[in-house]
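User: Let's play a game. I give you a shape written as tokens, and you guess the letters that built it. Ready? Here's round one.
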């Protein structure tokens, strides 16, 4: 397929690409960014395209892979933030004076409870505590906003139940 035909084929399916990107991201701006990244990568990889009849499938595969890679990168970044945050908190706990034993015990208890929460629920909670809004958490994790809200509700409820004896 010639470069000119290839480019025209991509331009002809732009609305389909936007719809697919929106299904993946649930956000117009993120969808536009995803389409742009997809088109750029496809244009850079023109010589790798060999099936002249399945350009749309090839473009969808590129877009899906970019979305998955971005999601994994965001998750890795959140884990790095969490590890740094946890290390800082543990250092603060170790540096506490003996007269602050009760405060240290409460923080350790809180961390023990948080680390027993399943990973798929813990990440949205950590993002919320770090200052992310519900919508931002939903976008970064690729979840519906209602799912994020319900997971945060259940974690708050569990923390309240577990910590009621310590207040």
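Assistant: Ready! My guess for every position:
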């Amino acid at each position: 397929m010639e470069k000119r035909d290839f480019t025209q084929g991509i331009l002809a399916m732009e609305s389909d690409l936007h719809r697919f990107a929106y299904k993946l991201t649930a956000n117009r701006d993120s969808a536009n960014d995803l389409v742009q990244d997809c088109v750029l990568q496809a244009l850079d990889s023109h010589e790798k395209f060999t099936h002249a009849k399945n350009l749309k499938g090839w473009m969808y595969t590129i877009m899906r892979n970019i979305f998955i890679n971005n999601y994994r990168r965001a998750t890795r970044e959140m884990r790095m933030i969490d590890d740094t945050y946890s290390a800082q908190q543990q250092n603060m706990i170790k540096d506490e004076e003996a007269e602050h034993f009760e405060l240290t015990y409460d923080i350790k208890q809180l961390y023990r409870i948080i680390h027993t929460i399943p990973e798929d629920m813990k990440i949205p909670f950590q993002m919320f505590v770090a200052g992310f809004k519900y919508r931002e958490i939903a976008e970064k994790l690729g979840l519906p906003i209602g799912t994020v809200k319900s997971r945060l509700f259940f974690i708050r409820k569990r923390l309240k139940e577990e910590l009621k004896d310590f207040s």
